[in-house]
Structure formats: structure tokens, C-alpha cells
């Protein structure tokens, strides 16, 4: 049934009964409420959760056709929820959102079954477009490619993820002092 904003939810997000179910998980209450309203205006039946445990419970009750999950939740990682979503429903279309974008977590999210990985602040149009993308479309080349500092930061993040987020092991493999690595990890990604 179309809503006020028009029925524009992607066909891949429709359940067997024709509804457009979407699980939205984020621990930022303001973002959660705003995005929920905007997605409902675009025809989704949105169920919200404010953390990993709440998201897993909502998933257990009724696996959604689509999901938008924050990577860093107060009580765990959104990647754990992506894995649980894929187990509960093979055809789920999930997107990971994060304010801490890096290549290693993007690769992990896609390997676990996410269809896309967007950095915050993501606009609702970007989210709907990512949910609708069939995987055949080619991405546009970047307007502003990564700086050398960003490439270095991405490499450090990748090695950190490969070492199961063990700071000492990552520092050893990168031939870097552990405290230097801790300072780098504590900062936001360079532009």
C-alpha cells in the first residue's frame, strides 16, 4: 500500500505478502527517528532497534526483507547483526552505515552479506538507491580520490581487522610502536 511519500521502495525489499519490511538499527536516537520517518515516507514498513541485542530480538521475531545497520553499536558490532540477518533470511538486502569508514570493515560487511556500505551522514536517497541497486551498476569514479594519509590509514585499519583487532599484533606486523598505533586508531580517518 503506497504511503504519502510514494511507493518507491525497491522490489528486492518486498516480503512474500508484498510489504516492504526494513529493520533500522542505530544507537543514535536522533538519527534513528529521523531516518525511520524518512524511510516510512518512501514506502517502507520500518522496525527500529537501538542496539545489537534489540536488533537480534527484532530479527528473531520477524526477519525483514531489508536492513540498514550502523557498524558501531553501543552493545556490539553491526557486523554480527548482518551475519544473523543472512542466516535468518538468505534474500535480505542489508546496508551497513558508519561514521568510521574504512576498507577492511567494508570488505567484512560485504563478505557477511551486506549489499553496500555507506558512510555517515548518509542521505535517505543514497540508502534507497543502494537498496535498489541490482549489483550490475558500476560505481562512478570518485570526484576526490583518497589522499596519501587516508590510504595509509586504510592500510592500518585493514591490518588491524586482519589481526582480529589486536593492537599488539598489528603494531608488530606494521613494525610500529604500539602507542603510536593506538593514537592512530583513536583518531578519525583523514580526508
Which features would summarize this protein structure in a list?
disordered N terminus; elongated; 191 residues; Rossmann fold; Arc Repressor Mutant, subunit A; five-stranded parallel beta sheet; 8 helices; two-stranded antiparallel sheet; single chain
Q: How many H/I helices?
A: 8
Helix fraction by DSSP (H/I, runs of at least 4): 40-55%
Structural domain count: 2
* Average predicted confidence as pLDDT: 80
Structural class: alpha/beta
CATH class of the largest domain, please? Alpha Beta
- CATH homologous superfamily identity of the largest domain: Response regulator
Ends apart, CA distance between termini: 43 Å
| Percent strand | 15-25%
Order of helices and strands: EHEHEEEHEHEHHHH
> Which segments are poorly predicted (pLDDT under 50) over 5 or more consecutive residues?
1-11
Biggest sheet: strand arrangement: 2-1-3-6-7
Q: Give me the count of strands.
A: 7
Amino acid at each position: 500500500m503506497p504511503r504519502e511519500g510514494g511507493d518507491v521502495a525497491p522490489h528486492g525489499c518486498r516480503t512474500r505478502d508484498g510489504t516492504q519490511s526494513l529493520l533500522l538499527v542505530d544507537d543514535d536516537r536522533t538519527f534513528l527517528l529521523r531516518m525511520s520517518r524518512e524511510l516510512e515516507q518512501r514506502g517502507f514498513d520500518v522496525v527500529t532497534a537501538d542496539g545489537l541485542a534489540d536488533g537480534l530480538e527484532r530479527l528473531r521475531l520477524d526477519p525483514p526483507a531489508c536492513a540498514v545497520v550502523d557498524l558501531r553499536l553501543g552493545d556490539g558490532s553491526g557486523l554480527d547483526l548482518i551475519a544473523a540477518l543472512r542466516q535468518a533470511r538468505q534474500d535480505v538486502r542489508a546496508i551497513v552505515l558508519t561514521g568510521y569508514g574504512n576498507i577492511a570493515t567494508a570488505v567484512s560487511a560485504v563478505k557477511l552479506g551486506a549489499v553496500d556500505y555507506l558512510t555517515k551522514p548518509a542521505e535517505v536517497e543514497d540508502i534507497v538507491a543502494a537498496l535498489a541497486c541490482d549489483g550490475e551498476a558500476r560505481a562512478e569514479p570518485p570526484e576526490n580520490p583518497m589522499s596519501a594519509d587516508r590510504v595509509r590509514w586504510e592500510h592500518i585499519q585493514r591490518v588491524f581487522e586482519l589481526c582480529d583487532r589486536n593492537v599488539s599484533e598489528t603494531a608488530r606486523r606494521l613494525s610500529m610502536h604500539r602507542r603510536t598505533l593506538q593514537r592512530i586508531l583513536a583518531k578519525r580517518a583523514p580526508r
